[in-house]
Write a structure and sequence with these properties.
heterodimer; A: 714 residues; mainly alpha; 31 helices; globular; B: 422 residues; alpha/beta; 8-stranded mixed β-sheet; 18 strands
């Protein structure tokens, strides 16, 4: 039997709870949950000073808001029509379901997870990790299952995608202690690494207790000669975490710290019996999944390679982990890594339903993401002197999240159905403090700027740039590229080396953004093929190695190590390459790009972080760079330009032109609403004054994309 | 969202940040008081900084700290400079003639032999941490000093600058990929005439005005300020500074017709237009093998540019108010390895200062006989940053608030190197 090593079976076996088995209890109802939250918030508000209330946004504003929040895109004209044709009574609720069922829901919320977990495509095993997180959102893997996978993973970077989380911090136990606490519990314990926390209860000893779970974790590079063949996450025999800490150890004997989880679990169940409901649900789900597999007679090959057929590959629980672990025992390279008992225990402790911080932290994050402010702010700063705004509402929602089986989609669906979510903004004519008080009480929302990816994709969508809008050959241009080519040069020791003027031969600093002269590379969105990133790539890598000659491998290794034989140098020559290309603009979604984008890229300029430091969060403050990119960038300009293959063309050019209809269409496509009387007459004047009506329409559209109304969510 | 004690070139604090700052207290002291206390005014000796970042770890022995007669010296000989008693490497014959303007520090005691961590510390003064992104020295400077003209306060050429971290987006560097390259974002795109572009701006202006109070908040008004600034920059005559090739051919030739030469020339032109901080990036110093021909090549490229910059600025008088600094992440091993290269050596290394109040013609600190460790006057990395701040009249110990309301000093406990200015 051929055993494929480290096989990834995330979208594993078809699991369908058929009627033959007693299915899990009905999940909590998001609509009812939302109503309860609204009531709790109102009750808690009633205890304080009365705040102003903004009414719910109107239907179209709701449509725009919810499309951006669920799919990171503004609605198309067709979607607007579909929405308004739905029965008014429950179309908001129905449309949330519609949006959540789309692929883009996974794209959009994978970005949320990506920021939270600091998923970096460029890190060890990064591509597979990014793809894994996307897939986890797509199949709605329960949040606790996901967390345990990330914490307990061992194995090879890439082949075992879940190792990406711990490898992102180089498996450093101290860094990971801060990460686990802040990311999953919303508690910033890092200060306690060097001293007892200044504002909170955490002591240095507790920090070390937690760090001890990672005390044996190590990152191992598997090398042959100078080539790194693989990076592994492994457990070593002894722990690195010793007490007292190095700076206090003088004259004392240091002892290994026993791992202990410093977050105290609650006792007993909650008022709504959420722990009992959680257990009942989880047990039933596992039983149903196991029974389904038994009924299908799954064999070992299926377990390793995933199903050969079947469309419903949803296996969010991965109930076959145990079976697979057995098979991995015959893993040929198994001695390269060991499963971590300590981190498995940590995963259990973190995700224990009695660990209040865990559910509350996630609820708070998602609430803040959708409403613009959390119950606790910053979202990952739960501490005694940073009080929760509406503790009862947060507790209730956290309990229901647990009872749902840590169902992420349930959480999103519930929040999106609250009154709090649907509130409009207060007028800027009101005093700032009154507005703020209302926003804190969740009786009004503050305008949120679209995230980078949403802004990018919305312009692409409204400008019809996902598909070509010009005919082939209509956009021919000459592109000049400069590339640096490495050349190995044998030196003649009898002749002095003198650089030729005009030749820039030194390599530029590595890891800097490549920006081609005069181009707009910083606005490109390059989609990653997530499926491919999740494939087992060991075989491919071996193939690539075999394809190279021994000399090439040697040369490559010399290049990497810098060990060039005497008399040989690598020179870099700049080559100018001219190409005639059909520059028919077409943009792909920014949501599936390798993240983070390079420095200076549109996404970074608009706030995407490099997902490095734990304290970094998206900075949505405006900058001149943003303004320049929107004013003069290729994206906005091409999106504005009218092309013959887009719907508005026939309304502005030719015998059937209908200027008012064209104006209304671009308003709907850009702002999700019709223009008012003033705007319509302004737009008519713009088009009339332009040399060609389609140019005038492009100018109007350009201004719409650049407007504040476009980028701030209604 | 950043809650910073101040906003860089001032797109106003976001509303949430403002609330955080005004409500937050640190150890019982009101945040604003804390800031006011730290911000005492200091006498500046410089208005501008040009920082040359030599990525890869530049050999100290083969540049600023030769060890004639020792085995560690290698193939490159020391040469005399215009200041008696100071010798530097033969790769800098023209720079040697400018020695009266230059102060060398030969006793920097580094801590990191890893490119990433050393770069981080040399550029931010702080040790890298998983929790916090510290700002680069350029961001620190522009958080305190606005641009003196229309151009952005902080420009990086030929590579990325360190991030602004907790100082926020407005303290990030303006990025120029290649010197002389036209930044496509500073003009209307191809096919859009000025008339049409300006028409578009008018339409936009009107549209945003109509939205008015319906979109309240600092972020919205900030966006308007950013837009106004962007248009001002697009229309500024100062933009001409970016067009390096407009210099006379003999000037271009003098700086060396290389990317580095043009970058250096650009730095001069930017400073002349009021830019506060220019970072010029260059790589290729990681010479693990064949170090000496490589360093000779580096000299051929850097020497004419650096010497011309110093002499031009001295001639125009701007050198008095412009501090030139050349930094790298570490030095290189005195021991020459099997492949005639040198490996990473943070134990001791050198850097160069000139102008902006720096007393030239001196060497501060010495390394031991074989340039292994500092012999006297060890200088901490953060002292270099503190010296830059000091020249600009910025208190390096001033505290700013991170998003977590953690007070951070602008520079990690650095003390200015007094000898530089005496």
């Amino acid at each position: 039997m051929k055993v494929r090593l480290f096989s990834m079976t995330l979208a594993a076996l078809a699991v369908t709870a058929t009627s033959a088995f007693a299915g899990p209890p009905a999940p909590p109802d998001p609509v009812a949950t939302a109503r309860s939250i609204d009531k709790l918030i109102a009750d808690e508000n009633a205890a304080g000073a009365k705040t102003r209330e903004a009414p719910a946004v109107d239907d179209l504003a709701f449509l725009r808001r919810v499309s951006l929040d669920m799919n990171a895109r503004i609605p198309t004209d067709a979607e607007i029509k579909k929405f308004v044709s739905m029965p008014a009574a429950d179309r908001r609720s129905k449309y949330i379901e519609d949006l959540m069922a789309r692929e883009q829901f996974a794209d959009r919320w994978a970005i949320f997870y990506g920021d939270m977990l600091r998923v970096r495509y460029g890190a060890d095993g990064g591509p597979a990790f990014q793809a894994f997180i996307h897939e986890a959102v797509r199949v709605n893997m329960p949040y606790d299952v996901l967390t345990r996978k990330l914490l307990s993973a061992s194995g090879r970077a890439g082949s075992t995608p879940t190792t990406g989380f711990i490898l992102a911090d180089d498996a450093d136990p101290y860094a990971l202690t801060g990460v686990v606490s802040q990311v999953f519990m919303g508690v910033r314990i890092s200060c306690a690494q060097c001293h007892d926390h200044p504002f909170d209860v955490w002591t240095r000893e507790q920090f070390y207790d937690l760090a001890a779970f990672f005390g044996r974790t190590q990152r191992v590079e598997h090398r042959v000669k100078m080539q790194i063949l693989g990076i592994f996450l492994n457990e070593r025999a002894d722990t690195m975490i010793m007490w007292p800490p190095e700076d206090k150890a003088k004259g004392k004997t240091r002892a290994a710290v026993k791992a202990s989880f410093p977050f105290k679990p609650t006792e007993g169940d909650g008022p709504n019996k959420h722990i009992a409901r959680f257990k009942e649900r989880r047990d039933a789900e596992i039983a149903a999944a196991k029974a389904a597999v038994a009924a299908k007679g799954t064999n070992v090959d299926d377990l390793i390679d995933g199903p050969k057929t079947g469309t419903n590959t949803k296996d969010p629980l991965n109930v076959f982990e145990e079976a697979k672990a057995g098979i991995k025992a015959i893993d040929l390279e198994g001695d390269l890594y060991k499963a971590s008992e300590l981190r498995r225990m940590l995963g259990e402790a973190v995700t224990d339903p009695r660990n209040r911080f865990y559910a509350k932290s996630m609820v708070n994050r998602v609430w803040a993401e959708l409403i613009g402010r959390g119950f606790v702010n910053p979202v990952d700063d739960f501490r005694q002197d940073n009080p929760v705004a509406h503790p009862k509402a947060l507790d209730y929602l956290a309990d229901e999240f647990v009872a749902s089986g840590y169902d992420f989609r349930f959480l999103v669906a519930s929040i999106a159905r609250t009154t709090a979510y649907q509130r409009g903004h207060l007028s800027g004519d009101l005093p700032a403090l009154e507005r703020l008080a209302a926003e804190k009480a969740f009786t009004a929302t503050a305008p949120r700027r679209m995230g980078s990816e949403a802004l990018f994709d919305s312009i692409v969508q409204a400008g019809h740039l996902f598909t070509p809008k010009h005919r082939p050959g209509e956009n021919m241009i000459t592109v000049v590229n400069y590339t640096q080519v490495a050349v190995a040069v044998k030196e003649d020791p009898t002749k002095p080396v003198k650089p030729k003027l005009g030749g820039d031969k030194m390599p530029a600093m590595p890891a800097m953004p490549k920006m081609v002269a005069g181009s707009y590379d910083l606005e490109k969105g390059i989609e990653v093929d997530f499926k491919n990133a999740l494939k087992n790539r060991d075989a491919l890598e071996l193939e690539k190695m075999n394809a190279k000659s021994a000399e090439e491998l040697e040369a490559e290794s010399m290049m990497k190590s810098g060990n060039m034989p005497a008399g040989t140098r690598i020179r870099y020559i700049t080559k100018e390459v001219k190409t005639l290309v059909d520059d028919n603009p077409r943009f792909t979604s920014a949501m599936r790009m390798a993240s983070p984008a390079p420095t200076g890229h549109f996404l970074r300029v608009f706030g995407q972080t490099d997902r490095g430091a734990l304290d970094e969060r998206r900075d949505h403050s405006p900058s001149m760079r943003q303004a320049l990119m929107m004013l003069n960038g290729k994206l906005t300009n091409e999106a504005a330009r009218v092309g013959p293959l887009e719907p508005v063309f026939a309304l502005i050019v030719g015998p059937k032109a209908d200027v008012d209809a064209a104006i209304k269409l671009v308003y709907r496509e850009a702002l999700t609403r019709e223009p008012n009387v003033d705007e319509l007459s302004d737009a008519r004047a713009i088009i009339k004054e332009a040399p060609k009506p389609e140019d005038g329409l492009a100018d109007l559209r350009w201004a719409l994309f650049n407007s504040n109304e476009f980028r701030f969510i209604p | 969202m950043r809650s910073v004690s101040k906003a860089c070139s001032g797109y106003h604090l976001s509303r949430r940040a403002f609330v955080g700052a005004s409500a937050g207290t640190f150890l019982g002291m009101n945040v604003n008081t804390l800031i006011a206390r730290a911000g005492e005014d200091r006498k500046a000796t410089a208005d501008h900084v040009i920082l040359f970042w030599n990525g890869g770890g530049m050999s100290h022995i083969d540049t600023w700290d030769p060890k004639p007669g020792r085995d560690v010296q290698g193939d490159l000989d020391p040469i005399k400079t215009s200041v008696a008693g100071i010798e530097i490497s033969e790769i800098f014959p023209l720079v040697a003639k400018q020695m009266k303007h230059i102060a060398l520090i030969r006793s920097i005691a580094g801590q990191n032999g890893d490119h990433g961590r050393a770069t981080y510390q040399l550029q931010t003064s702080y040790a890298q941490s998983a929790n916090l992104q510290h700002p680069g020295i350029g961001s620190v400077v522009v958080s305190e000093k606005k641009s003196l003209g229309d151009l952005p306060a902080y420009v990086t050429v030929g590579g990325g600058a360190p991030k602004a971290g907790y100082l926020g987006q407005t303290c990030e560097a303006y990025f120029v990929g290649r010197p002389g390259e036209k930044d496509p974002y500073l003009a209307f795109p191809a096919g859009i005439t000025d008339v049409r572009g300006n028409k578009r701006l008018d339409i936009l202006q009107k549209m945003n005005q109509k939205t008015g109070a319906a979109l309240p908040g600092e972020e919205v008004t900030g966006a308007q300020t950013a837009l106004t600034d962007a248009v001002k920059l697009m229309r500024s005559p100062a933009l001409e500074a970016f067009e390096v090739r407009k210099e006379k051919p003999e000037v271009l030739e003098k700086y060396g017709d290389t990317e580095f030469g043009r970058s250096t020339l650009l730095a001069r032109r930017l400073v002349e237009k009021g830019v506060r901080f220019v970072q010029v990036n260059r790589g290729g110093f990681d010479v693990h093998s064949n170090a000496f021909p490589a360093m000779k090549d580096h000299g051929d490229v850097m020497d004419p540019a650096l010497a011309s910059l110093i002499s031009d600025l001295a001639e125009s008088g701007l050198l008095k108010r412009t501090m030139i600094v050349m930094l790298s992440e570490f030095g290189r091993t005195p021991k020459i390895n099997m492949t005639a290269g040198r490996d990473h050596h943070p134990g001791v290394f050198s850097c160069m200062f000139a102008g902006g109040g720096v007393k030239g013609g001196q060497v501060i600190g010495t390394s031991d006989a074989d340039a292994m460790s500092p012999k006297d006057r060890p200088v901490k990395v953060s002292h270099l940053h503190a010296s830059i701040c000091h020249a600009l009249g910025i208190d390096p110990n001033k505290e700013v608030m991170t998003p977590l309301q953690r007070p951070m000093k602008l520079v990690d406990n650095g003390k200015p190197v007094d000898e530089l200015f005496s």
